[in-house]
Amino acid sequence: MRKLLIANLIAICILVSYFGYKEIQPALIYATHGDEYKELMYECDHAMREHYIAKMALEQEISDLGIKNLQSTELGLVKCHDYDKKRKLLLSKGLTFLDLQSLGLEALEEKEYELRKFVEIHEFRY
Amino acid sequence: MNLGIRSLTVFFIIFFNISIDASPEKLLREAVLLNGFKSANEINPATNNELVQIGKEFFNSKNISLNGDTSCQTCHLDKFGSADGIPNAVGVGGIGEGSERVKSYGAILPRNTLPLWGRGIENFNTLFWDGRIERVEDYIFSQFGKDFPSKDPLVVAAHLPPVEIREMLVEDKFITNNKQEKLTSAENVFNEIANKARSKEAGPMQNLANFYNIDISEVTYFHIAESIAEFIREKFAVQQTKFHKFVYENESLTDDEFNGAMLFYGKGKCSSCHSGPLLSDMQFHTIAFPQIGYGKNGFGIDYGKYNTTHNPNDLYRFRTPPLLDVENTFPYSHSGSVADLEESVIYHFDPLRYFDASESSELDRVEYYKRLSLATKSELLTVYLSKEEVDEIISFLKTLSFNPKDI
């Protein structure tokens, strides 16, 4: 009887651990690392854009300042390395590609709320 | 010395010419014409009524939205001067009109809906805020590359909304599979829209087949787009406004309206950019309007024409919006961030008046400084205008209003 109880307890522990690992941990990771991931995503996106703009500007007109600007923005791309590391870490901790896409979309469209706030404030004369 | 005498002579010639030969009304009319203003009759194109009537059916039909629930009319409503009355357009999933639509949690788009007035006139060659469709001689610059579907920019423009995810498309499996930026994938979606129209809009599709003298199975999205463009040309044709009547029929304006027009074409230098028959030079400029919504580039950023050209000189530049019926096409700016005409005029010369640093994030501020620096570099930046002068300009702008045609 006691052995059965212990076996049941072990089974419950395994189930809880498994459920925790599969369901609770990703949710916790999503909640605790989400903001940092979104921030890094913005940083990388911004660095890539600045780099591309600097490159295009140099194509338009070659100048010392333009070259320095491009070099700086190249160094700035290191933010994308941080973003990539974070992305891999989150995947290894159980988040799925869909979770990361969802976080990415949240970051990209974070300012949607402003629209509703704006409409509430102004209440256009309909 | 010689220069002084010459200047004095020129002054007397101008002074006496103005005081003897030219009334202020005459001077204003001359300035208006010099800036390319034209009567409605001069610029409105001829249309084919049969095609207009078919186009009306498609313009109003939600079946053009392949798997969504929006029609062209959803965002181009008579009551909002052919726009939608909200800052950023709300596409698929949106319910109702105006603020109700914003609160309905449909898919928000990054930009303000442009009104359709005068889109059919001959020289309307640059479409959308970022000029993503532009006719240069016989070539149309667009996302279709060299395979643009028509030499008419309006017909090309009518091809875009139905293949825009969130605007008229929901991203389902079919759309995901066709999401690559390839002409063939757009073609697949257009074919599906035509197939859907054949079953859900059988009448208008048959009418199109009859119009083009082809079998209904040969009707493609191109024919639908041509009919929509024809409807837009007719429905949103320019109409004689109070200001047209002042210029062409010698009718009078009130003192405020007249003073506003004098400021618009004179001291305020508004006509430097707001010129031509629709009061737009169709060029790209930066005004330090605030940005709301997530922006075309995400994170609350919109690079404007740069998104089309990838030329850094085009960063934050947007096409000058035409001003016909501007009173009814609120809110203003590319992201609809400016609620009324007064604010809109003031942003042109005193953008910091409404800027509240405490309400913005660091990113918002840095982005704003960039736009501000470009806006203030412009030699077209207008001069200071008093409250009274701003009000007079608004009075003038209201003389450009008219009611939509009932088709």
Describe this structure in words.
The complex is a heterodimer of chains A (126) and B (407). In chain A, helix 1 runs antiparallel to helix 2, helix 1 runs antiparallel to helix 3 (78-92) and helix 1 (2-60) packs across helix 4. Chain A has one domain (34-122). The mean pLDDT of chain A is 85. Chain A has helices spanning 2-60, 64-76, 78-92, 97-108, 112-122. By secondary structure, chain A is an all-alpha fold. Chain A has five helices and no strands. Helices cover 41% and strands 3% of the residues of chain B. The longest helix of chain B has 20 residues, at 2-21. Chain B has helices spanning 2-21, 24-34, 40-43, 49-59, 72-75, 98-103, 153-157, 173-177, 183-200, 202-212, 221-235, 242-249, 255-265, 306-309, 341-347, 362-377, 387-397, and strands spanning 126-127, 133-136, 139-141, 284-285, 318-319. Chain B contains 17 helices and five strands. In chain B, strand 1 (126-127) and strand 2 (133-136) form a beta hairpin. Chain B is mainly alpha-helical and 407 residues long. Chain B has two domains: 23-43 and 239-400, Orthogonal Bundle (Cytochrome Bc1 Complex, Chain D, domain 2), CATH 1.10.760.10; 49-235, Cytochrome c-like domain (Cytochrome Bc1 Complex, Chain D, domain 2, Orthogonal Bundle), CATH 1.10.760. In chain B, helix 13 crosses helix 17 (387-397). In chain B, strands 1-2-3 form a three-stranded antiparallel β-sheet. In chain B, strands 4-5 form a two-stranded antiparallel ribbon. The chains are: A mainly alpha (126), B mainly alpha (407). Chains A and B meet through helix 1 and helix 5 of A and helix 6 of B.
